[in-house]
Specification:
It is built from 16 helices and 22 strands. The chain is an alpha/beta fold and 515 residues long. The strands form 6 sheets. Strands 1, 2, 3, 4, 5, 6 and 7 form a 7-stranded mixed β-sheet that branches. Bound molecules: S-adenosylmethionine (SAM) and iron/sulfur cluster.
């Protein structure tokens, strides 16, 4: 009944996923596209925007690239290995082009942005290259490529958020959805290529986010994850007209145990007034912080779970923690990447916090939300990392008691600050050994964390059948832990909430019974 990979270094389960959002009626669309996505959740979310843009142009999707007129690959540049995977995949499309010369192949996303026209030169089979801020131009680029022209648009934008585009949900379970709330990143961590491939940070119109979440809820979805590289720096000045008021009947109420807030976010009544009163209408430019956005989304319905990712430790505020506490439906889970436990390495990484500061942030989260799940990202073998620095990383993992982590070996990326300033001087075998130690420790921490849940009962949102058996459901608790439990003849369906008592576990999965 294992639903999660043990010894997980990085969640590879969706890499290269192909999508088929539309009905299989070949007559319905003039042309067909195939899209395959790699990398972070943001890329998967972007593919849903691309699908929407293409479907407006009469393109239907197919799961089989051999029958597509347009083959797209949405790429990731975060590590060298991610780029190698894409290159390898492209060679597989070569035969397709040989057999059907009219087929167009397009490269989207971070790798397109990083390599630009080089792609057309290096990969002879590529016809279209589109960066993450240029997807609106895709139909025009397809037109240009059809007439044999070079079709490249890698312009980064200061304001593109695709706010007005309704993403077409791709290969969705119909229960959980990702909603992009911002794009780009201003942080310039020295190891990271994202600020170069995704441009400056910009926040999406708050009203469009709330509306998208509301529509998802109304069409049966029960969980939204608000996505951004650094969600806590979300900030939007909402122009008039103001947001629609939350739907009365379904509006979530603050949990009975909710705290009064220190840096007070607006209360429910203040938000309603901000939304709809004549006073609010005359008040130009109401500011929406991330805490406020969370609150607005949580108010859509108490049956809609709200998650978010990723939080930069320097930016997550007390306001956000108290808002989480105030609403039962904001999940008790924070992804708080530490990257390294050594202050010296953190400084080289330009993470802008020290080891002590990070630990104090973990303490604060546990003070305000004692049952909060915390996960992390960790990099083994960053430039100049010593054994002592590595020990500091293991130590901060133990201190933070992560429920889960994404763990990586440092991979030097062209153009980053680290590549320009520091030597990638930790030998490969040492990086590997340190990563193995990090993974080993995380496996132990995850198992211990799961063992603490034995005998507890959780409210679980059912996402579908367990991977192993259609006799079992798979869902998650508020802490984002996967729970597998037998259907046991109860009348539950996907998207329902069930109370599940945990009676067993592995390091990756809780196992239980409906209570
Ligand atoms: N914005 C998020 C943050 O700050 O935590 C996540 C960004 S990135 C898409 C996801 C993770 O990839 C990072 O947290 C980091 O651990 C890892 N990563 C980024 N660049 C890397 C590199 N050059 N080598 C290894 N891992 C890297
Ligand atoms: Fe990259 Fe740092 Fe921005 Fe995350 S916060 S995307 S790691 S630069």
């Amino acid at each position: 009944m294992l639903d999660f990979l043990p010894d997980k270094v990085h969640d590879e389960s969706r890499q290269g996923e192909a999508f088929a959002p539309f009905v299989n009626d070949a007559q319905q669309y003039r042309r067909r596209f195939y899209i395959e996505s790699y990398g972070c959740q943001m890329n998967f979310s972007d593919s849903e925007i691309v699908a929407s843009i293409l479907s407006e142009q009469g393109f239907g999707a197919t799961r089989d690239y051999r029958e597509a007129d347009l083959v797209l690959i949405n790429t990731c540049s975060i590590r060298e290995k991610a780029e190698q995977t894409v290159r390898k995949r492209l060679t597989e499309f070569k035969t397709l082009k040989q057999n059907r010369p009219g087929v167009l192949v397009g490269v989207l996303g971070c790798m397109a942005e990083r390599l630009k026209t080089k792609f057309l030169e290096e990969e002879q089979l590529v016809d279209i290259v589109v960066g993450p801020d240029a997807y609106r131009s895709l139909p025009a680029l397809v037109g240009a490529a059809e007439t044999g022209q070079r079709a490249v648009n890698v312009l980064l934008s200061r304001d593109e958020t695709y706010a007005d585009i309704s993403p077409v949900r791709l290969d969705s379970n119909g229960v959980t959805a990702f909603v992009s709330i911002m794009r780009g990143c201003n942080n310039m961590c020295s190891f990271c290529v994202v600020p170069f491939t995704r441009g400056r940070e910009r926040s999406r119109d708050a009203a469009s986010i709330v509306n998208e979440c509301r529509q998802l809820f109304e069409s049966g979805f029960r969980e939204v994850t608000l996505l951004g590289q650094n969600v806590d720096s979300y900030y939007y000045i909402q122009p008039q007209p103001p947001l629609a008021p939350p739907t009365g009947k379904n509006s979530a109420q603050p949990s009975p145990g909710g705290h009064p807030e220190k840096n007070s976010s607006p209360s429910t009544s203040e938000v309603s007034e901000w939304d709809s009163s004549p006073l609010a209408e005359s008040r130009m430019g109401a500011a929406v912080t991330f805490a406020k956005l969370l609150e607005l989304v949580a108010q859509i319905s108490c049956d809609l779970r709200v998650r978010f990712s990723t939080s930069h430790p320097k930016d997550i505020t007390d306001d956000v923690l108290h808002t989480m506490n105030k609403y039962e439906n904001i999940c008790r889970y924070i992804h708080l990447p530490v990257q390294s436990g050594s202050t010296r390495v953190l400084q080289l990484m330009n993470r802008t916090y020290t080891r002590e500061w990070y630990k104090a942030k973990v303490d604060r989260i546990r003070d305000v939300i004692p049952d909060c799940g915390i996960s992390s990202d960790l990099i083994a073998g960053f430039c100049t990392e010593t054994e002592e620095d590595h020990e500091d990383t293991l130590d901060i993992m133990r201190y933070s008691n992560y429920d889960m982590s994404y763990m990586f070996m440092y991979s030097e990326r062209p153009g980053t600050l680290a590549q320009r300033r520091y030597a990638d001087d930790v030998p490969e075998e040492i990086k590997k050994r340190r990563l193995t130690e990090i993974v080993g420790l995380q496996n132990r921490l995850s198992l211990e964390s799961n063992q603490k849940d034995l005998g507890k009962t959780f409210r679980v949102l059912i996402e579908g059948d367990s991977k192993r058996s259609s006799a079992d459901w798979m869902g998650r608790n508020t802490q984002n832990k996967v729970i597998v439990f037998p259907k046991d003849g109860y009348n539950f369906k996907k998207g329902d909430y069930a109370n599940v008592k945990v009676n067993d576990c592995t390091q990756a999965t809780l196992l239980g019974h409906i209570e």
